[in-house]
């Protein structure tokens, strides 16, 4: 299945520089519909208002972390199938295991490169 | 007021004067030693000069790194948007020089961080000397805000970046999701 380059993607990160990096990488990959939110609460509000094809989220944010956002998404009937990739500096085994248990589709440790992001998006959204 | 408070009632009051004098001299010596150690701590200098300096330097570092990152990203974005024309090489070179200039922040921030590290080393030495002199022991609970912060970090697995790079390699994570 080919990647749908028109699908809207939500990038959730409290660091605008990281949002900008991911936006540029996604643009290089051909994705034009990229939206962003600065924490889980803001992301959840956007997810309720628009159907996104993918969520790419950081873990450590306030007030709502990416881990909490993931659990909210998976608990919500209308959102539970939304593909979710965690992009984070949290690299301990317990974090990866907890995210997988909570239903994350893939996990990227910062710092990362364009090739890693591309391969995870392809793995999650089908290439 | 009655006489009861002035009457000898316990062992302490039964001691001989020489013993009491020796004890009082020991206390006086201890107080004098404490005063020396408290003076050596130079708490006023720390709170008036060094801690505000560390705050200011770290604030400047944050500002400089954010500014440099912004400049570098703007240059990179400008290059990505360049038209493929005769001016392409000259335009790319101009943006590359902007990136070189922006990277100069590292020298300045390195020096600022060096000052903060030096101040922290100084605090550490003074506090260690003081703790040893007064045989300080850590007691009591942590304040509520700190307790709440720690509880949140533990509950939400907020471990932060690990000291020597990622604790689990990306390849091992990939294997888990394969």
Structure write-up:
- Chain A: It holds the Pfam family Response_reg.
- Chain A: It comes from Methylobacterium symbioticum.
- Chain A: Residues 8-125 form the Response regulatory domain.
- The complex is a heterodimer of chains A (127) and B (178).
- In chain A, 44% of the residues lie in helices and 17% in strands.
- With 127 residues, chain A is of the alpha/beta class.
- The model of chain A has no long low-confidence stretch (mean pLDDT 94).
- Chain A has helices at residues 16-29, 40-49, 66-75, 93-102, 114-125; strands at 9-12, 34-37, 54-57, 84-88, 106-109.
- Helices cover 71% and strands 0% of the residues of chain B.
- Chain B has helices at residues 17-41, 43-80, 88-102, 105-133, 144-155, 170-177.
- Chain B starts with 16 loop residues before the first helix and ends with a helix.
- Classes of the chains: A alpha/beta (127), B mainly alpha (178).
- The A-B interface holds A 17, 20-21, 24, 28, 59-60, 65, 67-68, 89-96, 98, 100, 105-110, 112, 116, 123 and B 66, 69-70, 73, 76-77, 80, 156-162, 166-170, 173, 176-177.
Sheet-strand content of chain B, in percent, reads under 5%
Largest interface: A-B, 29 and 22 residues
How do the helices and strands follow one another from N- to C-terminus of chain A? EHEHEHEHEH
Mean pLDDT of chain B, as a whole number? 87
Instruction: Report the structural category of chain B.
Output: mainly alpha
Spatially, the strands of the biggest sheet of chain A line up as 2-1-3-4-5
* Rg measurement of chain A, Å: 13 Å
Counted beta strands of chain B: 0
Radius of gyration of chain B: 31 Å
H-E order of chain B: HHHHHH
- Number of alpha- plus pi-helical segments of chain A: 5
Secondary structure tally: strands of chain A = 5
Largest sheet features of chain B: none
Q: Which geometry of chain B do the CA atoms define?
A: elongated
What global shape of chain A is seen? globular
């Amino acid at each position: 299945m080919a990647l749908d380059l028109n699908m809207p993607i939500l990038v959730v990160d409290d660091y605008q520089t990281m949002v900008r990096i991911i936006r540029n990488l996604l643009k290089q990959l051909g994705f034009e519909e990229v939206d962003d939110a600065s924490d889980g609460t803001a992301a959840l509000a956007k997810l309720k208002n628009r159907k996104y094809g993918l969520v790419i989220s950081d873990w450590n944010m306030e007030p709502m972390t990416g881990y909490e956002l993931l659990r909210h998404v998976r608990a919500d009937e209308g959102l539970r199938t939304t593909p979710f990739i965690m992009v984070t500096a949290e690299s301990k085994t317990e974090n990866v295991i907890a995210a997988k248990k909570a239903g994350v589709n893939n996990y990227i440790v910062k710092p990362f490169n364009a090739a890693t992001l591309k391969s995870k998006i392809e793995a999650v959204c089908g290439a | 007021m009655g006489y009861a408070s002035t009457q000898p009632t316990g062992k302490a009051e039964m001691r001989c004067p020489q013993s009491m004098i020796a004890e009082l001299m020991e206390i006086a010596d201890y107080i004098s030693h404490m005063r020396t150690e408290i003076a050596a701590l130079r708490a006023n200098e720390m709170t008036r000069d060094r801690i505000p300096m560390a705050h200011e330097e770290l604030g400047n570092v944050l500002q400089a790194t954010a500014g440099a990152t912004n400049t570098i990203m703007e240059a990179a974005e400008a290059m990505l948007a360049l038209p493929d024309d005769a001016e392409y090489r000259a335009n790319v070179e101009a943006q590359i020089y902007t990136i070189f200039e922006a990277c100069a922040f590292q020298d300045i921030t390195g020096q600022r961080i060096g000052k903060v590290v030096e101040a922290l080393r100084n605090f550490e030495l003074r506090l260690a000397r003081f703790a040893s002199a007064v045989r300080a022991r850590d007691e009591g609970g942590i304040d509520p805000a700190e307790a709440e912060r720690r509880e949140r970090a533990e509950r939400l697995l907020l471990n932060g970046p690990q000291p020597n790079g990622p604790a689990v390699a990306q390849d091992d994570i990939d294997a888990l999701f394969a």
